[in-house]
Specification:
Length: 172
Amino acid sequence: MADSSFIAEVALAKSQDSVKAGQPLTLSLSFKIQGAIREAFDQKNWERAYNKHDNGFRMTIEVDIKSGRKTIMPIKFVRKAALFWTRNPKIPYRIWVSIVKDDTPFYPLTVEEARSILFDVNKVIELSGSDLDSGTHKLYAEIRVSWGRHDYTEPTEIKAKSNEIELMRVAA
């Protein structure tokens, strides 16, 4: 199976245009993981994988916030899905999924909701003006997402780069 997963709709935004040393700067990064992995992440595959004792999915997301070639802030986080035997009367299937995002477990009621929780990323990134030298910076995010082999997917790493945002670091 040719894996055609990709990162789409990448957007990096800033809370303000200029920042002083020691002043907080909030960036928001959003993107979606689309394609083969999103399509394969469905109830039929969960059931098949569960029956083969493949009942976890772990995705590592690494983001480097960069100015030019310099990494200002590396961020790494993990999203997990656990397949389990459910007795929830609202769910018409035997095997279902729970998703851990930012250390919080979610119990989606639909496959689409499960995909959205697992594969749609909206991350708030707190930087400090002190992380930047004085002057104008063009910041962007380099994104790497990877996961291992499962019944429904091969080990994969996909990459993307966000748009650039211009930011002025002003002297205090």
